[in-house]
Write a structure and sequence with these properties.
Chain lengths: ~220, ~220, ~220, ~220
């Protein structure tokens, strides 16, 4: 942004841009928009009980009865927020993106922007009993699996061509990142099974996984770069 | 963005900006916002079945019964996503936009931001039988025709004045782009007829057309430029 | 954005920034977000008729019956789009904004972001007969009066301190702009009266006024600057 | 942004960026998105009375009867708008943000994006009588307490490491800012008690507090910096 010479040594001369390359700026702008909207739309599913439907119950009781909606809201908010932070960190690695990366990013945005649907589903059926709470919880967990997979694919698309990066990522850092994606993916997949045992435990696990991801699985790759 | 001399030879000296010219930055920011919101609002039409309305059916069955909603959601998401990528590519050609382009862009945004309505219509009536599924499908297809038309008009507005572009587009590249827009427009229009034969086939065709458009009809123009 | 010396002579040395000044970048980003969301939320009020509520009517008839909703949607879309374009042009005059301008901008955003409400009101009551269609139309027209007033106030806030502008605006250009705002404001106010005669004519007038405003009432000020 | 030498003396040499640092640009873009969406979603809770539910009442009366919804809409719009302006001012202090600040910012965005829920709650129950209006008002006030707390935490995160700022903030300015946050926090907390006496007075107090906050509690810190 400034005219002062950049003191950091560039690790390799930048190749000339190809016709199918894009700057990361607009990818980030569009993605930020989708993340921001998805995270904010979640609030539309916190229902205000109709006064006529209280049936003599106090508002306080009616609201307390909706705890699954608040719990699902918080976990989904946290998940989208963490994914945004990690998307931010991943984009910071790249100096430009190719068309393949745009499509991988679109797949990630699909899995993120659909999150309000399984969130609403889980809020409605978490305490429904029967098999329905299991169905809702399994769909929620499967959405998270798809999002984790999309994030891993996007990382591969971003790092596939070292010339698109500000600095090449050492192979061992890449392997370490992929190993961590793999472990995360296994944990996410295991929560689908957990959904059939305890939907509440499934949701609590995703809260914990979000906190785990917040400890920056990209830090090693970026630190070495 | 950097102080290093730009090695790419500028094909023509930039004319002084006129009073009615704008940078592309804010056009892109506003468009990205509308694209991002339209693509994310689609999720509001994935309905969660009310527990009281299940009528003894399992949630799994009730959700499976909504497959037209998922199908329409996916196709509309893909269409908006592809249009965003192509909009992105088109804006990269221009160094500034005139007021005519702003209005052409507003017309494109109108056709994009209305997409949640025909999507919801189709999700509700795709399997309705009678003539209603045909009506819903024809309206969906007509929206796509309008969007394709708006995109072509925007391309014309962008490229009309070569001084607004980073580099002039050779006439044969322009003709090739217009020919491809024409063919795309004919295909889109044909899906209105298809809507009266098979609404499901109409929707599947739009999924295929979106994939066709993803193979970058703007690439030749940009490659030669 | 580039390190090349800027050939355009700066009309006056830029004063040092004061502690309460801001760049226009984030004002534009936030405003673009609100404009983009308000214009896209309008689609949520295009209702899909429930299959059970068709009462033997065809979908085609039920949709045609909703013409006031499409008409109101189109006019409100056009109004917000034009205001965005003019906001864009106005921001291009300034090199920074003070806190007073931020508040004037917030007032404009209030009048813009509320537009989906009178639009929905008018869509529901345009053909209601009785006095209710007049009430709905008058509220719609009054919202437009408030928006025009907010836009004029914002113009005053932007141009109040010439040091915040890229170039001073000649007094006669300012007077001309204010005269045009005044005429526009009178026309807008007259549509409140028109709402009590013919709500449909009121809405058509706003479509025409939007087209009038699209012929850039800011062009003279910018051309001289 | 320009190549001209910056005349303001840099108070300290910028340390090299660490692997966990980010520019403020994308934090601002994402936050602007969430602020813009939350402030615009408020309009979805201004209900249009169903024509069939008027019961012979005029639309004018039915709309006037909804005054708590307009009042709550205006106060929440003002609160989010002011918070955006102050967020804007706070970000202008920093040249980069660390991961801790990203999380503090996410917490602020949580409290901002949830505001449409207590707003809707208050609009529905402000005049409900019984204890329910007190419950709704207390939840509204508690949301504002959480938002004020989140803003104070974000200020601490932003200013914790002086190397992340454009210029260090003198200790007495920091202490003054924290004192003002503390007084604001006490006032906010007191409105929870007020909610149990008069929900309308609670809402009016938040309108006044928003106006108080608009007189830039950050100005002293920024003026000295």
């Amino acid at each position: 942004m400034t005219a002062e010479p950049d003191p950091s040594p560039s690790p390799a001369p930048a190749p000339p841009p190809r016709a199918t390359d894009f700057s990361t700026a607009r990818l980030e702008a569009f993605s930020d928009g989708v993340f921001a909207i998805a995270i904010t739309l979640l609030v539309l599913d916190l229902n205000v009980p109709e006064p006529d439907a209280l049936d003599g119950q106090s508002l306080r009781h009616a609201l307390a009865h909706q705890w699954p909606a608040y719990f699902a809201y918080l976990v989904s908010f946290l998940v989208i927020g963490i994914i945004w932070i990690n998307h931010h960190a991943m984009c910071a690695l790249a100096r430009r993106v190719d068309r393949r990366t745009l499509f991988a990013n679109l797949f990630l945005l699909l899995t993120v922007s659909v999150i309000p649907f399984p969130t609403r589903l889980l809020a409605t059926y978490l305490t429904a009993g029967h098999g329905d709470s299991h169905t809702a919880a399994a769909i929620y967990a499967a959405t998270m699996v798809a999002m984790g997979l999309a994030f891993s694919l996007l990382f591969l698309a971003f790092t596939r061509d070292a010339r698109n990066l500000h600095a090449p990522i050492p192979p061992e850092a890449l392997r370490s990142a992929m190993r961590r994606f793999g472990i995360g993916g296994l944990c996410y997949t295991a929560t689908i099974a957990l959904a059939y045992i305890s939907p509440v435990a499934m949701l609590a696990t995703h809260a914990l996984l979000a906190v785990y991801y917040c400890f920056d699985q990209l830090a090693p790759a970026r630190a070495r770069a």
